[in-house]
Amino acid sequence: MALSLIAGENPTYLNVRYDITFIQIKEAGKESDKIIEREMQFLRLINQKYRKSSKSWSTRQQLIQALSYVQSKQLEQTQQLIKKEVDLLDICNIHEPRNYYVWQHRKFILKLAKTIMPSGDLVGLINSEKLKFSEGKPDASAQEYIDWLSHQFA
Fold this sequence. Notes:
By secondary structure, this protein is mainly α. The protein folds into 2 domains: 1-66, no CATH class; 73-154. Helix content is 81%, strand content 0%. It starts with a helix and ends with a helix.
């Protein structure tokens, strides 16, 4: 764990951790969500410190997809997850507004929201996202995201 935190952008450490985590998930059965949530808390530290670590963002997405409540589309828990992810992404965008991985994870989270959230809640989330990034003169990354939102959620 310590090596992953010290060298969080190094895919080798993250790959080993990824393999161990998914072995634990398979062995845990019904308790797998606890392991996944623990690992996501750890990845939150890595994502905040090493915001351009592609392996940590892709692992985060795979863990989200492995959560039983995401797979079974349980609304309340998944909405809480979406809110936590958007909060993390907001923190990361403050420090590096042009980070490709953060923008791609935002799209991943919004696609997840589209499959689960009621239309009224989804519209509120989309409008909030558009407002967040359209204030002032958005840079090219933010503008591309706003355009993507408008196209995906028209």
